[in-house]
Amino acid sequence: MELLHLKKLDLANKKVFIRCDFNVPMDEFGNISDDRRIRSAISTINYCLDLDCAVILASHLGRPKGEVVEKYSLAPVARRLQQLLKRHVELAPGIVDDATLKLAADLPRHEVLLLENLRFEPGETKDDAELSRKLASMAEFYVNDAFGVSHRAHASVHGITKFFDTKHKAAGFLLEREVQYFGKLMGSPVRPFAVIVGGSKVSGKLEALVNLLPKVDKVFIGGGMAFTFLKQMGYEIGASLVEDELLEEAQKIMDEAKKLGVKFYLPIDVVAAQTFSEDSVSKIVTAQEIPDEWMGLDIGPATVRLYREGLNDVQTILWNGPMGVYEMDKFARGSSKIAHFVADSYSTTVVGGGDTADLVQRVGVDDDMSFISTGGGASLELLEGKVLPGVEPLMVPKTEKE
Ligand code: AMP
């Protein structure tokens, strides 16, 4: 997939609108607890500033649902941006109100204006044409660097692109890197190629699993989703998370894996607990002997050994979804051990999904991964083989390629 390239735009001395993804987690005091998404956007912003552009930045934060909610203001983001860019960042009073439009119109080159939270505007998530038009009217160029939201047809991601021709819009460096990375993974991965899939439910990752099967050599299943497969195999899974309506689908996936010669690994033991809580009694049991009323909340030590053995010879690893309830220390060991193993391996390691990115960061091995995607839902949709609504308008049209 070839994207309209930022470096091909004639940006010098112009005004550029950059849609970023500054949807960062905050602690209870309103401090940014992880600024990876802000840092990831810096190279695109600096590139434009170095070309003497006036830069307008826009992002959403949280889910204020179309209303101005003080705690979702981008003020903390403006402050962090200021530190990272080492220059003044003006936070606009709104999004497309008269005062903000005037600030944007008068913005001198080398200056940075950050609009307030796009989702204060009800039209943002509705892909409202009027909002798109007003946002587009602020600048001569449009750049999308918000991979994390590019699977959404929202006004600042999708509608706005209609107001710029192919010489006036492009993918930012981050967006391009994400799309290229996943494209390579799905197109020509170095083999053997393994995918580790975890998380809560099969349903959330079903399409991705089905799409990945013909492309991978090995699949390792963990997390809550494992129990739907284990139940289908006739095991007693106690009170573990299960999706009964997907038992047949689980069977189809296992049959398809067999047909394709894909090695399909399921947990052989689990850490089971009596209640879903950190201070619950817990014990390690085999996957075939989970007691009634107990629930499997992590993969067990034998599974960790098995998965390590299976992952030993692979060259590419894609990981999406934790192996257990990693938010509770008691059920984080499986995920943590797999994270260390993946990080230490010499293969290309790609981590997708907000939870998995959070997990590898908590474990402290994020720097050892080849690539960590900034977008959970968006990366999953790429793995499902979909073209994202925010990316499609930024693809080089066929006629221009020839
Ligand atoms: P997902 O959003 O589908 O990737 O799921 C991530 C969530 O799955 C995390 O919050 C984990 O706590 C949860 N999870 C992982 N393993 C289990 C399990 N065995 N039972 C219940 N929830 C789980």
If you had to describe this structure to a student in words, what would you say it looks like?
The protein has 402 residues and is of the alpha/beta class. The chain has 2 domains: 6-175, Rossmann fold (3-Layer(aba) Sandwich); 189-383, Rossmann fold (3-Layer(aba) Sandwich). It is built from 13 helices and 15 strands. The strands form 3 sheets. It has a 6-stranded parallel beta sheet with strand order 3-4-2-1-5-6. The longest helix is centred in the first third of the chain and has 15 residues, at 36-50. The protein is elongated. 50% of the residues are buried. Adenosine monophosphate is lined by residues 199-201, 204, 223-224, 241, 296-297, 321-322, 324-325, 327, 353, 355.
Distance between the termini: 14 Å
Number of helices: 13
Bound molecules: adenosine monophosphate
Structural class: alpha/beta
Level of helix content? 25-40%
CATH H-level homologous superfamily name of the largest domain: Phosphoglycerate kinase, N-terminal domain
Radius of gyration: 23 Å
Q: Which short descriptors sum up this protein?
A:
Rossmann fold; 402 residues; six-stranded parallel β-sheet; alpha/beta; 13 helices; single chain; 32% helix; binds adenosine monophosphate
Write the topology of this structure.
Layout: E1 15-19, H1 36-50, E2 54-58, H2 75-85, E3 89-91, H3 98-105, E4 112-114, H4 129-136, E5 141-144, E6 169-171, H5 173-187, E7 193-197, H6 206-212, E8 218-221, H7 226-232, H8 247-260, E9 263-265, E10 269-273, E11 282-286, E12 295-299, H9 301-311, E13 316-320, H10 333-344, E14 348-352, H11 354-363, E15 371-372, H12 376-383, H13 398-401
Parallel strand pairs: 1-2, 1-5, 2-4, 3-4, 5-6, 7-8, 7-13, 8-9, 13-14, 14-15
Antiparallel strand pairs: 10-11, 10-12
Helix pairs in contact: 1-2, 6-12, 7-8, 9-10
Adenosine monophosphate binds at residues 199-201, 204, 223-224, 241, 296-297, 321-322, 324-325, 327, 353, 355.
